[in-house]
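lol forgot to send this yesterday, sorry. struct tokens for the thing we talked abt
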């Protein structure tokens, strides 16, 4: 099967960008507000559970900033879905429901199956090399225990494949779904992001490199179903969290 880029017009223009790392919402690197970074890292590291209350006055004291600054950080976290802001009650770490988790994964299985078929048809040897190099970064993040970086990379991998697929509408859907699945992993996967995800990515690349669309779709489906099965989707229990300890601030 030819590995040259096919098509003309919009799809061809889209594919010419080829694969490259993409920003990944709250898991992106560089230039973050320290409050945003600390809350994000505590959620990814399992120190801030779903439903934990984030009290403005406590955060202001912990970070030695004004409550206005805290509100700005909480609004940013709310915008990317990591925090829920409730009128007259305050801010809480998001607690997506089991129904939402199932719906998000079902949407990904449906949308990403078509993306994988397109990407398998159009990927080049250079694309496969770039994606394998990305998997090596995932392994490195896992070995170093860099949970936030690993979450970002695991999601980025799927966004890079969406670029190869060449359908910007499907890619935009993935941009909306990936942060939500990453949040579910951060909150509800007891041991954090699993090395199984990297193994699945390598298997997926093997099928794409062989040009076997249906095998690649099967691997993807198994990958997403296993990711969902690893989540512990129990409703959060109300409890008090030591914010300073969770955020590793004294």
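and heres what i got for the seq, position by position
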């Amino acid at each position: 099967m030819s590995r040259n880029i096919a098509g003309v017009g919009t799809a061809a223009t889209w594919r010419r960008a080829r694969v490259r790392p993409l920003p990944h919402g709250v898991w992106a690197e560089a230039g973050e507000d320290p409050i945003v970074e600390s809350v994000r890292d505590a959620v990814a590291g399992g120190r801030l559970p779903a439903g934990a209350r984030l009290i403005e006055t406590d955060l202001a004291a912990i970070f030695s900033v004004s409550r206005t600054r805290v509100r700005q950080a909480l609004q940013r976290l709310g915008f990317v879905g990591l925090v829920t802001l409730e009128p007259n009650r305050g801010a809480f770490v998001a607690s997506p429901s089991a129904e939402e988790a199932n719906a998000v994964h079902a949407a990904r299985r449906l949308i990403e199956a078509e993306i994988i078929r397109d990407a398998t048809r159009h990927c080049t040897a250079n694309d496969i090399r770039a994606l394998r190099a990305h998997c090596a970064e995932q392994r490195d993040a896992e070995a170093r225990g860099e949970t936030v970086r690993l979450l970002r990379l695991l999601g980025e991998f799927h966004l890079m494949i969406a670029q190869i697929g060449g359908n910007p509408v499907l890619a935009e859907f993935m941009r909306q779904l990936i942060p939500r699945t990453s949040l579910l992993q951060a909150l509800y996967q007891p041991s954090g992001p699993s090395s199984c995800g990297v193994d699945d990515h390598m298997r997926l690349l093997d099928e794409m490199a062989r040009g076997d669309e249906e095998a690649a779709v099967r691997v993807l489906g198994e990958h997403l179903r296993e990711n969902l099965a690893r989540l512990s989707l129990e409703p959060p229990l109300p409890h008090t969290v030591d914010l300073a300890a969770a955020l590793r601030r004294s």
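The chain has eleven helices and three strands. anyway ping me if u want another try
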